[in-house]
Every structure is written in C-alpha cells, then in structure tokens.
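TL;DR need structure tokens for one chain.
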Amino acid sequence: MKTWTEGVTAFRFCIIGEEMNIPESDFQVLKLTDYFYNDYPNPPYKEIMQKRQRAYNCLLFQTHYDYYICVPYRSEISHTYAYLFKKSKRSMKHRSGLDYTKIVIINKSEYVDTIDALLDKDEYNETVVNIKRIKREALEFVEDYVKHMKGVHKLSPQEFKRRYNFSPLQYFHNELGITPG
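>> reply
TL;DR here they are.
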C-alpha cells in the first residue's frame, strides 16, 4: 500500500494494484499528471482545463461508482455552477471557488500526482468545513448530466447548454456508463 501525501492529516490515498481506494468521507487536493494530459490532449479535448506550466489544483473524492470526481479550483468563476468561497482572502477580490462545469472523471491512479498540491490555507479550511455540501453538489452536477444523456430526466435545451456546453464530462461517457445513441 502506498500513501499519498505523507503527513497530510485530512486524507490517506491508497493504491492497491491498479485500483484506487479512498474512503468515501475523504478527499484530497491534488494536481493531475502529464499522463492524464497526454491521454486527453488539446485538441481534441478542448474543454479540459490545461495549464502545463502551473497545473490546476483539484479536489478529488470517491463516488459510489467506479470512478473519482476531480473538481478544479479556479480564481475566477463567472457562473453559478460552482462552490464559491466566501471567507478566503482571494474571494474578497475574485470569484474563486470549485468549478463544477470543469469536472473531470478519474479512473486511473497514473492520472493523479503524488506531490502535494499547494493551496491557500483559508481556501483549504473552507473546503474542509463545506466538504459534504461540495461533494453533494458536484455529484448532483455529474448525475444530472448522466440522467439527461440517458434520457431519464431531460433538462430543457437552454438549461443543458448553460450547465454543460463547455463541460469535459462529454469526454467521459464510457466511465459514466453512457452508451452511444
């Protein structure tokens, strides 16, 4: 068993063979690896946030499905499909938070960097305090997409476009169990 981020008390991340295992109540702040960006290059995966020089910090947590949800931290969010920080220093000048519209699905341990991501302490603390809400909202965002794509619960065309027009979820249909037409 390997431990991710030695010394971080909020989380232990284990790799068992090729499987990732995070207890359901836990999470980790991390960065995605070059392996991920090589498998999802831009183009054609233009909706995945790419910053080679300064990788985006992401909040990763396990779902009850066979994948992990990775929500990026962003400094400027111009829509409501996000958790917006209210108490951090950055949030006093910017609309910073966790952006649900840029969620990616992670199913390989190679996609996750083993080096700790750096995050402002106040944003980390606000994440910890609100983790249940953030996880619930992020999972609902993904589940609404899946339900729409499977025809279980269709959103209006305007609402679907508002939420998902620039979402990377379109690249993860296999992982989400969405079969073609």
